[in-house]
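A.,

Following up on our hallway conversation. C-alpha cells first:
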C-alpha cells in the first residue's frame, strides 16, 4: 500500500520576538496517526531546508505521495519531490491536514480567481441534471468500456456509509462529436466539485485543480433553476457526493467520461 502524506508549508501566523516571519511545515497522514511539524525563518524557507525536514520526518521510509492543497506550497514541494523521488499530488481534499490547521486556528482559505467561461469549442450539444441511487452508481459504470473513468474508492457511496437508496445528484453533458475532447479537457483540468451558483443568470461552476474555476453553463429558465435547487439539496443529503457524466448522446448505450466528485466541506468553511 502506498504511503501518502498531506503537507503544508506556508507563512505561520506566529512571529518570534524580533518580528521575523516564520514559515511552518505541517505533515500528517490521513488518520493523523503520524504528525510532524517544523518552523524556520523566512530567510531559509527554501527547497534545501524542506528536503532536509522531509528526510527527518520520514526516517527510513520516504512517502510515495505527498498531497498539497495550497498553490503557494506546490512549486517548492515539487522541487523537493524531484529531489527525493516522491510524487507530489495537487489535492484539495486534504481533510486531515485542513482539520489540523483549523484546530491551530491557521488560515486555510485559498484565493480563487473569478470563474472563466469554458472554451466555446468544447461545450456539448445539451445537458441536464440527473440522479442515480447510491447502490447502483458504481455498478452502472465500473464494468463498461469508458475511456475516462474516475471512481475513487474513497468517494464510493459504500465507503462513505451512504444508504443504497440515497439519490446521488449529477450533471450529464451530451457532447456529440465533441464528447471525447470535452472529457479529455475535464480530466486534464482535474475536477473537484460542480456547484450551482444562483445569480443573474444562474450557472454551474466547475471547481478544478487547486484554485481553478470554470463556468460550464448559465441559465435563466425557471424550470432549470428549480432542478438546480434540487441538485444542491441532494448534495447536502449525500455528504456532498455528486457526479459529472459526459456521453455522446442520450441513448444510454455509450459513455465517454464519468467523475465522482465531492464538496470540499473543510476547505469551504
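Then the amino acids I'd put at each of the 269 positions:
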Amino acid at each position: 500500500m502506498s504511503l501518502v502524506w498531506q503537507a503544508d508549508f506556508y507563512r505561520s501566523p506566529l512571529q518570534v520576538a524580533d518580528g521575523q516571519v516564520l514559515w511552518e511545515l505541517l505533515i500528517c497522514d490521513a488518520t493523523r496517526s503520524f504528525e510532524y511539524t517544523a518552523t524556520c525563518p523566512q530567510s531559509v524557507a527554501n527547497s534545501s531546508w524542506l528536503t532536509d525536514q522531509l528526510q527527518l520526518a520520514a526516517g527510513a521510509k520516504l512517502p510515495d505521495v505527498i498531497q498539497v492543497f495550497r498553490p503557494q506550497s506546490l512549486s517548492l514541494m515539487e522541487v523537493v519531490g524531484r529531489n527525493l523521488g516522491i510524487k507530489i499530488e495537487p489535492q484539495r481534499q486534504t481533510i486531515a491536514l485542513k482539520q489540523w490547521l483549523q484546530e491551530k486556528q491557521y488560515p486555510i482559505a485559498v484565493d480563487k480567481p473569478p470563474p472563466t467561461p469554458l472554451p466555446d469549442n468544447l461545450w456539448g450539444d445539451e445537458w441536464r441534471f440527473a440522479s442515480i441511487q447510491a447502490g447502483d452508481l458504481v455498478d452502472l459504470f465500473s464494468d463498461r468500456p469508458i475511456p475516462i473513468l474516475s471512481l475513487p474508492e474513497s468517494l464510493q457511496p459504500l465507503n462513505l456509509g451512504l444508504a443504497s437508496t440515497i439519490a446521488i445528484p449529477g450533471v450529464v453533458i451530451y457532447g456529440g462529436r465533441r464528447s471525447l475532447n470535452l472529457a479529455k479537457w475535464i480530466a486534464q483540468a482535474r475536477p473537484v466539485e460542480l456547484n450551482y451558483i444562483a445569480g443573474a443568470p444562474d450557472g454551474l461552476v466547475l471547481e478544478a485543480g487547486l484554485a481553478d474555476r470554470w463556468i460550464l453553463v448559465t441559465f435563466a429558465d425557471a424550470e432549470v433553476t428549480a432542478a438546480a435547487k434540487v441538485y444542491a439539496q441532494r448534495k447536502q443529503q449525500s455528504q456532498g457526493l455528486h457526479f459529472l457524466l459526459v456521453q455522446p448522446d442520450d441513448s444510454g448505450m455509450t459513455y465517454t467520461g464519468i467523475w465522482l466528485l465531492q464538496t470540499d466541506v473543510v476547505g469551504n468553511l
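The chain has a mean pLDDT of 92. Curious whether your intuition agrees with the design.

B.
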